[in-house]
């Protein structure tokens, strides 16, 4: 009885954050699930795998909060009601545009397909003064560090087709995204593999193959430990 109680307590601690997100969300997705949602105003939100979204529309603004994962928004123009997406401590505001928001473990990323997006955060106010245009992206870390760049606009939200195109991104960041499509656990171990940069196109429908491609590109190894654990190692 004592052992069973201890196991139950540990499971509760492990899964409580996920349960809290699920209870707060109006829409959510499971592992490897991508879901298109038509919102009340006609805007479209596409939720990536393992993602959750809370919607709270008001008379003078359209407000949604990304609770976990990633979402791509195609916003119906309405000059009287700005569309605002909150993710962590980052807010993105538009009138009508298409853009992507990703809430990672240590950063929030925003990328624009077309239109303009104003991004704001109390942890990095000065660095976010200029709005984002087509192809622009910004990454705001939890410590306030900001990275900005520009890619082809058509790459934004490419994961909706099941293919993930990345350019010069940290392996840890890419593995986190691939992990939402794997029905198991992915671990990074050994050396500086997590911080190395990667560029490529990966099939999210075959996460193990995607990880193997990353490993080969950096002289790393992918270890399979049972049916539900993959370890990407720099050793």
List the topology elements.
Elements: H1 2-24, E1 27-28, E2 35-38, E3 44-47, E4 52-58, E5 61-74, E6 83-87, E7 90-94, E8 98-103, E9 107-114, E10 118-120, E11 136-141, E12 146-150, E13 163-170, H2 171-179, E14 185-189, E15 197-203, H3 207-217, E16 221-224, E17 229-233
Parallel strand pairs: 5-6, 14-17
Antiparallel strand pairs: 1-4, 2-3, 3-5, 4-5, 5-8, 6-7, 7-10, 8-9, 9-11, 11-12, 13-15, 16-17
Helix pairs in contact: 2-3
Largest sheet: 12 strands, mixed
Low-pLDDT stretches = 6-16
Shape designation: globular
* CATH topology label of the largest domain: Jelly Rolls
**How far do the termini sit from each other?**
42 Å
Mean of the pLDDT scores?
90
Radius of gyration over alpha carbons?
Answer: 19 Å
Instruction: Give me the number of helical elements.
Output: 3
Report the structural category: alpha+beta
- The sequence of SSEs as H and E is HEEEEEEEEEEEEEHEEHEE
CATH architecture of the largest domain: Sandwich
CATH C-level label of the largest domain: Mainly Beta
